[in-house]
Amino acid sequence: MRFPGIRRVTLFAAAALGASLLAVPHAVAAEQCSVAKSMIAAGDYWVTHGTDLATNSWQNGTFHVGNLALVRTTGVSNHKTLPWAQDNKYLLQSDPARPFFPDFQAAGEAYLDLYSFHPDAPVIADVRKRVADEVASVERGDTGYWDYVDALNMAMPSLARIGVMDGSEPTLAAMRKLFRSAEKKLYDDALGLWRRDAGSDAYWSRGNGWALAALAKVLQVLPSGDPRRPELLRVFTKMANTLWFLQRRDGFWNTDLLRPWNHGGPESSGTALITYGLAWGVNAGILDQGKYRRTVDKAWEALSTKALRADGFFGYVQPVASGPGPVRAGDTGAHGVGAFLIAGQQVARLTPACS
Questions:
Q1: Domain tally, the chain
Q2: CATH number of domain containing 337
Q3: Does 166 fall in a domain?
Q4: Which of 52, 150, 226, 250 is catalytic?
Q5: For this structure, is 150 an active site residue?
Q6: Are 322 and 196 in contact (CB under 8 A)?
Q7: Are the CB atoms for 252 and 266 separated by under 8 Å?
Q8: With the C-alpha atoms ordered 283, 295, 286, 195, is the resulting torsion angle positive or negative?
Q9: What is the superkingdom listed in this entry's lineage (predicted)?
Q10: What is the mean pLDDT of each run of 10 residues along the chain (355 residues)?
Q11: Domain annotation covers residue 1
Q12: How do 187-188 and 193-194 pair as beta strands?
């Protein structure tokens, strides 16, 4: 789905992201599509009022993936992603003691998205090098460090995209080995849910949102005949069915999926990631629209009317954590806003007024 003028974003992408071009005035997109209005409000509020905006952290990487989804969906840029990437010299975070720590790779997905607008080799040079080094490490037998569910979203999309972009079977094979190692330790196939880590007995909505979103992102780029697709599709559809069943009446998912009494109340970051995954599944024809469309609509209604304030503040975002925890209306964060924006991209494609 596109708004009038969206083609100008493709033609003049670098300018749109970097400085002066507004491909579509805010009012035009917002008049046509309430989803666009909500996305623009949330993105603008965060870049104006958000905290710790400079670093190449996983939180900011998640936001900028969403920020570029905002540009693609609405044709409107807040001109923040390209300067952020340039200021960070298109580098990933690093630590010699943990050379392939997945959180440090999250910014790579944003750089890869930026590369589709601004295809200069330096934009993804560090991502490509990190992936090449990681593939060599996996081939030497180091496959155990995706030992928390967030890792799937932080690292897996970049491996898939570099692997497909470069036609690299070793890269895609390494991705599969890492995924299978994580699956063996963290995934409960009977439930269709992931534990946050091997020591956890809780099934966290944001953790499962990370997993569902990662699977959706990888399935988007793998060719239809790729031998890894059936395995990933099996997990994706099993998860989707479980999450469909677990949605709250108000449209959110509990932060602790199987213990609604544990930190009860709305939580928006997990809900947004789940909404993204389910909406993408419907758009891709993988999930049945008759079953899942109402679930997506309820979730978006909750996110855009309860979590999102009229001024663009996006609340009920559980702070950085390693499992279910308390959430307040005033809690927000880059990861939650980014998740909301990618969810909006998929919901817009399901919304007739946004075509």
A1: 1
A2: 1.50.10.10
A3: yes
A4: 150
A5: yes
A6: yes
A7: yes
A8: positive
A9: Bacteria
A10: 34 34 40 93 98 98 98 95 98 97 98 96 98 98 97 98 98 98 98 96 97 98 97 98 98 97 96 99 98 98 98 98 97 98 97 89
A11: no
A12: antiparallel
